[in-house]
Structures are given as C-alpha cells and as structure tokens.
Design goal:
The chain has a single domain, classed as Lipid/polyisoprenoid-binding, YceI-like (Lipocalin), CATH 2.40.128.110. It contains 2 helices and 9 strands, in the order αββββαβββββ. The protein has helices at 2-19, 73-83, and strands spanning 22-35, 40-53, 58-64, 69-70, 91-98, 110-122, 125-138, 141-150, 171-181. A hairpin with a 4-residue loop joins β2 (40-53) and β3 (58-64). It starts with a helix and ends with a strand.
Length: 184
C-alpha cells in the first residue's frame, strides 16, 4: 500500500512538472539606452509579449514599437515617425531557442546562466543573434534577463546626420521579463 501511495505521489509530481512547460507574459519589460557625450536617450516598453517553452527551449518575444515611452514627447515622436517608422513596422520580435535547456532545473528555485540564439527582426530586417542571459526560477514564475547591443544601421534604421552625434552607434537593449506558468 505504501508503494502505491509513493508511486502515485511521484507520478503526480511528474505530471504537474510537465503540466507547466510553457510560460508567458504580456507585460514584459524591454528598454534601450543610447549614450553619447551630447545626450543620453532611454526608453521603456512594458507591453512586450513573450512565450517560453521550458521543454524545448523555444522562446518568442514581441515588442510593439509604439509602446516605447520616452522622457521627452518629441523624442518619442521622432523615434516612431522618423527612425522606426512604427506605422510601417509596428513590432520587433525575437524568435529563437535557449541552448542547453536541460541545464535549467525548472522544479528548483535558482538562477541559471543561458545563451539564446535566434532571429531578431526589427524595422523589417532580420539578423541571427546570440545573447547571454539568466533564467531565474521562483515557484511558477520565470524571470528572463539579458542585455545586448544592437547597431541601428544593421537594421536599416536611418539616423539623419544632423542628429547622428546625439545617438550612439550601438544601442544597449535590456530585457527583464517575468513569465508565469500557463495553466492548461
């Protein structure tokens, strides 16, 4: 009888662990920072959607461009109208895979260093990228963190020469998103 109870508890644990294989958010945080001697530019987006499959390591992030908020309204207007052309290219996305996903123990709270490889699409241009990051497991939540650089020129983002000195050649992108387990 004891063995049956123990076996049932183990099976229940296995099924509940496989039950929460997907995590998602619609309120992920992505920011960017441009630093030059003339001016620092920073914007925040708290409306980034993401889904992560803990079993396969597949991950998708989708950021609506118009959701980036700036300190100055004119910066936001120029960003959307002149640089990112957000009416024409309304979102940016990353589709990829976390490598060596088996090294992350999703049933144990902790932080795990990972690398995600995939395709970043921005302003209608797609490039393969590889970014280091951290997955922090805490109960039924995952926090995904990464910081990487993007060169606007690589994505055909035109910076007018009269403001080029105010915008860094490489822009720092930071992702700090909390995803919760999807209940089926």
């Amino acid at each position: 009888m004891k063995r049956i109870i123990i076996t049932m508890l183990l099976l229940a644990g296995i099924f509940s662990a496989s039950y929460a294989q997907k995590y998602m958010t619609r309120t992920g945080k992505v920011s960017f920072f441009s630093s030059t001697p003339i001016e620092n530019i920073e914007a925040f987006n708290n409306e980034t959607a993401s889904i992560f499959d803990a079993k396969s390591g597949d991950i998708v992030f989708q950021a609506p461009i118009k959701s980036f908020k700036f300190e100055k309204e004119t910066m936001q207007e120029h960003f959307n109208d002149d640089y990112m052309e957000s009416s024409k290219y309304p979102k940016s996305d990353f589709k990829g895979k976390v490598e060596d996903i088996s090294k992350v123990n999703f049933s144990k709270d902790g932080s795990y260093k990972v690398v995600a490889k995939g395709k970043l699409t921005m302003h209608g241009v797609t490039h393969d990228i590889s970014v280091p990051g951290t997955i922090t497991v805490k109960g039924s939540e995952l926090t995904l963190n990464t910081k990487f650089m993007v060169t606007p020129q690589d994505y055909n983002i035109k910076i007018p020469s009269m403001v080029a000195s105010k915008i860094a050649k490489n822009i720092e992108i930071t992702v700090n998103s909390i995803l919760t387990a999807v209940q089926k």
